[in-house]
């Protein structure tokens, strides 16, 4: 019984939140890894791209709410999502046309594009603040919980229980669907395969008649969709604040690198590794241990390895360790 | 690298967590196709008096070099390392900017076309290096070869498997995990999948054992017999010239000797300087 209670606490405070956060990171890291694989540079504008896409979703959500349109228990943001994706796609294709394309024509070294993406980051950053301001925005509506801790406790008769917020369920379900669709696209469709071919060997892709500009355009479309979905899910689950999205860049890159840059599977694994590490290291284990250990061994302190302010340090640590011992990431990134 | 263009200076960056290296395009991928002019007469595929080099400001590698292949022929380019054989092939395929000269295909001047447009015009090319998609399966490599086709290409794939039976056994394996000789077969197979009207092979027998080499030559002759013009670069000059209808000896980016395969083999000077006596 005690162990079961420990497990319930663990579910409520570690497993469910980390699964949710991991799904959000995985979606973000997939976008980063796609740009890296196809365009060959680390896109520093990704976090702010997420923020801008989410901004569009929020504006549409508010508009729908003002019109009285709602999806009942499901957040209205889900209805606004396609419109947000369209806006983000237009933005990223426009950026590519105006900015990145110039550097492709120059056959610029990828490291130049990295710096360029930082410039793009600042611009996106500014636009987001200009449109929606730097403050917290709440746009979640619909049902709050799938089931609450209390409901679960009453149902199971245990001392402890766990609840699942509807945004958490939504995040995980959406992530599974999106990832399945992405993998199907990359591995089964002609366009998806041509993207992998382009990532493998650009020259040979040309020699097979693949149009490189089309591959690049499809990549930005996918990245826009992934970024907007990740950003919206994160915003629904936590809250939307532009600066937070900029900060998300670190765990997202950590996830992509830990998994192996350029490897979609790695991005997903990396997302969950980073999320679980962050949550477990910054969680106060006192309650779980009280249930799990015999009374004599019950801990005095909070049993928290690091305070939550240091959660970014966790991504950094994992990043450093992976780069030291397995620089290509867990799933062999980019076979050269 | 770098040279004049500051955008091509990576300032010593070797950090793979920031940029992906290798496999980048060697041509400007944003280029658009130029006009195609009619240019009747002449061989099926011809690069006439080609002069050019790599990049916008690189030195000329080719100096008025002419290469051609006609219907039903095998043409072979031989020459010392660094003579510009691969460069001539790339020039024919539009992978470097010509400063002078032109490329014609089937009575059309295609000098201004991009490589991907030349594929659609009917050219197939197997480069000397990086000629497969390593993280894709053998079958996906062949599918990518058929990328431009909208009809059912399974028949062609069966033909390729008949030509190279080993590929059929390995079709679910990543091409990057094959042996050198098997990779060459994937590379040739990929080019055949477009059903090209002319096939260009840059050292298809590089790194394969003598037996496989003979086999590959036999296959190439087999392909050529179907009427497909084949233009190839070969290090095994003697063997290649024996099966060649037309031979080119390139030296320092220029035509040194041109003739029939048999004629070049009989030429005392060619034998002395290129065939080792
Ligand atoms: N991508 C490139 N950029 C700049 N110079 C190049 C490039 N590729 C080849 N060269 C130069 O062009 C010249 C001719 O090279 P090329 O590859 O055409 O020779 P080759 O005749 O094919 O030799 P091999 O028999 O060794 O394959 C060489 O001097 C080489 O240094
Ligand atoms: Mg060569």
Automatic annotation (TrEMBL), chain A:
The chain crosses the membrane at residues 6-39, 51-71, 77-99, 111-132, 168-186, 215-236, 248-276, 312-331. One of its GO terms (biological process) is L-alanine transport. It is a multi-pass membrane protein. InterPro entries: ABC_transp_permease (IPR001851), BCAA_transport_permease (IPR052157). PANTHER family: BRANCHED-CHAIN AMINO ACID TRANSPORT SYSTEM PERMEASE PROTEIN LIVH, HIGH-AFFINITY BRANCHED-CHAIN AMINO ACID TRANSPORT SYSTEM PERMEASE PROTEIN LIVH. The keyword Cell membrane applies. One of its GO terms (molecular function) is L-phenylalanine transmembrane transporter activity. It comes from Thetidibacter halocola. Its main location: membrane. CDD domains: TM_PBP1_LivH_like (cd06582). It is found in: Cell membrane. Keywords: Amino-acid transport, Cell inner membrane, Cell membrane, Membrane, Transmembrane, Transmembrane helix, Transport. GO terms for cellular component: plasma membrane. It comes from the Bacteria. The keyword Membrane applies. This is Branched-chain amino acid ABC transporter permease.
Automatic annotation (TrEMBL), chain B:
One of its GO terms (biological process) is L-amino acid transport. InterPro entries: AAA+_ATPase (IPR003593), ABC_transporter-like_ATP-bd (IPR003439), BCAA_Transport_ATP-bd_LivF (IPR052156), P-loop_NTPase (IPR027417). Residues 1-44 are annotated as: Disordered. Residues 8-18 have a biased composition (Basic and acidic residues). SUPFAM superfamilies: P-loop containing nucleoside triphosphate hydrolases (SSF52540). Keywords: Amino-acid transport, ATP-binding, Nucleotide-binding, Transport. CDD domains: ABC_TM1139_LivF_branched (cd03224). Residues 45-277 form the ABC transporter domain. Gene3D superfamilies: P-loop containing nucleotide triphosphate hydrolases. GO terms for molecular function: ATP binding; ATP hydrolysis activity; branched-chain amino acid transmembrane transporter activity. Belongs to the ABC transporter superfamily. This is ABC transporter ATP-binding protein.
């Amino acid at each position: 019984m005690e162990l079961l209670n420990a497990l319930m606490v663990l579910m409520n405070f570690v497993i469910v939140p980390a699964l949710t956060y991991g799904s959000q990171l995985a979606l973000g890291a997939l976008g980063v890894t796609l740009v890296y694989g196809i365009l060959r540079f680390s896109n520093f504008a990704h976090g702010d791209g997420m923020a801008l896409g989410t901004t569009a979703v929020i504006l549409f959500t508010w508009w729908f709410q003002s019109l009285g349109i709602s999806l009942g228990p499901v957040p209205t943001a889900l209805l606004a999502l396609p419109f947000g994706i369209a806006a983000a796609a237009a933005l990223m294709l426009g950026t590519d046309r105006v900015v990145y394309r110039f550097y492709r024509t120059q056959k610029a070294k990828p490291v130049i594009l990295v710096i360029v993406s930082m410039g793009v980051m600042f611009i996106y950053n500014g636009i987001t603040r200009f449109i929606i301001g730097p403050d917290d925005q709440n746009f979640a509506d619909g049902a709050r919980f799938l089931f609450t801790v209390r409901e679960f406790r009453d149902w199971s008769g245990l001392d402890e229980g766990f609840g699942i917020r509807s945004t958490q369920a939504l995040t995980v379900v959406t992530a599974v669907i999106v990832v399945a669709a992405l993998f199907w696209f990359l591995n089964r469709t002609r366009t998806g395969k041509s993207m992998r071919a382009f990532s493998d060997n650009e020259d040979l892709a040309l020699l097979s008649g693949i149009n490189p500009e089309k591959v690049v355009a499809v990549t930005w479309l996918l990245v826009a969709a992934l970024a907007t979905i990740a950003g919206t899910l994160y915003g629904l689950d936590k809250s939307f604040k532009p600066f937070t999205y900029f900060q998300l860049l670190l765990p997202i890159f950590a996830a992509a690198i830990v998994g192996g840059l350029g490897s979609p599977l790695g991005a997903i694994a990396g997302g969950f590794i980073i999320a679980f590490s962050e949550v477990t290291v910054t969680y106060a284990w006192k309650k779980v241990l009280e249930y799990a250990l015999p009374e004599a061994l019950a801990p005095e302190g909070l049993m928290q390895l690091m305070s939550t302010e240091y959660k970014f340090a966790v991504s950094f640590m994992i990043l450093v360790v992976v780069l030291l011992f397995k620089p290509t990431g867990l799933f062999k990134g980019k076979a050269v | 690298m770098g040279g004049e263009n500051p955008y091509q200076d990576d300032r010593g960056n070797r950090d793979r967590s920031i940029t992906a290296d290798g496999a980048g395009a060697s041509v400007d991928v944003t280029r658009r196709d130029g006009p195609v002019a009619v240019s009747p007469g002449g061989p099926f595929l011809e690069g006439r008096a080609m002069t050019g080099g790599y990049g916008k400001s690189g030195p000329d590698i080719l100096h008025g070099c002419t290469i051609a292949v006609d219907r039903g022929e095998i043409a072979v380019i031989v020459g010392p390392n660094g003579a510009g054989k691969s460069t001539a092939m790339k020039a024919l395929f539009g992978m470097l900017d010509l400063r002078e000269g032109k490329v014609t295909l089937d009575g059309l001047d295609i000098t201004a076309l991009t490589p991907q447009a030349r594929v659609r015009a009917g050219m197939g090319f197997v480069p000397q290096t990086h000629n497969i998609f390593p993280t894709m399966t053998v079958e996906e490599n062949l599918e990518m070869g058929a990328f431009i086709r909208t009809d059912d290409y399974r028949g062609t794939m069966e033909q390729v498997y008949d030509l190279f039976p080993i590929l059929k056994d390995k079709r679910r394996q990543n091409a990057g995990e094959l042996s050198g000789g098997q990779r060459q077969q994937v590379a040739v197979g990929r080019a055949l999948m477009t059903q090209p009207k002319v096939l260009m092979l840059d050292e298809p027998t590089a790194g394969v054992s003598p037996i496989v080499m003979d086999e590959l030559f036999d296959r190439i002759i087999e392909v050529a017999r179907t009427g497909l013009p084949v233009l190839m670069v070969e290090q095994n000059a003697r063997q290649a010239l024996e099966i060649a209808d037309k031979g080119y000896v390139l030296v320092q980016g220029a035509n040194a000797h041109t003739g029939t395969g048999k004629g070049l083999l009989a030429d005392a000077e060619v034998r002395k300087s290129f065939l080792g006596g």
